[in-house]
Amino acid sequence: MRRIVAYALAPMCLALGALAACSSGATARPSAPGSPANSTPAGGSAHAISFAEKAGGLTRDHAGETINQGLLQGLNTTAAMSKYGVGKLKGAIYGPPYAADPHELIKIGPGQFVVAAATVRLDDPKTALRDMLKDSTSTGSGGTLTDTDPGPLGGSASCLSLTSGGLKVNACYWADRTSFGSVTSFAKDVTQTAEQMRKIRTDIERQT
């Protein structure tokens, strides 16, 4: 199950065990309310990722972020991401508060979404996104990768669907010339997750 969870957030790896696919690269930390992620390198339009108190019609769950601190701190960049200059990832949780059972491996509620994002400079977002996600559908992961509408901000977007041992995970990723990120659900179907990705992205990605 730990492996399937890691692939669900691939190419970001959770701190749920030693995973060979994870690098020792930059590690995400829950960001302060409204604080921007790393800035765009010179030479392109500057964008900032800012996790506000509300995004996509959902309220940020700070208590849930504290409970899932290990998960958010495990959003490591992989070698493929580093290849495209993806640096520090910021993580947040949006959705109704969830009273998790202490024995649950994933303490994310059915109405909650894990969001991770960073600013970056990509000359070919579609190719970069596919390259960064290719390991998610290989090495026996059983993942299904499908393209989806990136929303009004444009770029490229794909969703990864995984099911194993009763655990269903859908993660939708986007990439444009100045940002990269994902929205993950452990309960919603891929259509619902993609829709929420578009909504959340619109609220957290801003031009500066």
Q: So how many helices?
A: 6
Taking pLDDT < 50 over at least 5 consecutive residues as the criterion, the unreliable ranges are 1-8, 10-44
Kindly provide the radius of gyration, computed on alpha-carbon positions and rounded to a whole number of angstroms: 15 Å
- Our estimate of the beta-strand percent is 25-35%
Question: Strands of the largest sheet, in order across it?
Answer: 1-5-6-10-9-8-7
Query: What's the helical proportion of residues?
Result: 10-25%
Q: What separation lies between the terminal Cα atoms?
A: 40 Å
Overall spatial form: globular
Helix/strand class: alpha+beta
Largest sheet: 7 strands, mixed
Give the SSE layout:
Layout: H1 2-8, E1 29-30, E2 47-49, E3 54-55, E4 58-59, H2 62-67, H3 69-73, H4 79-83, E5 90-94, E6 113-119, H5 125-133, E7 144-147, E8 156-164, E9 167-175, E10 179-185, H6 190-204, E11 205-207
Parallel strand pairs: 1-5
Antiparallel strand pairs: 2-11, 3-4, 5-6, 6-10, 7-8, 8-9, 9-10
Provide an overview of this structure.
With 208 residues, the protein is of the alpha+beta class. 23% of the residues lie in helices and 25% in strands. It has helices spanning 2-8, 62-67, 69-73, 79-83, 125-133, 190-204, and strands spanning 29-30, 47-49, 54-55, 58-59, 90-94, 113-119, 144-147, 156-164, 167-175, 179-185, 205-207. A seven-stranded mixed β-sheet has the order 1-5-6-10-9-8-7, sandwiched between helices. Strand 7 and strand 8 form a beta hairpin. It is globular and about 45 Å long.
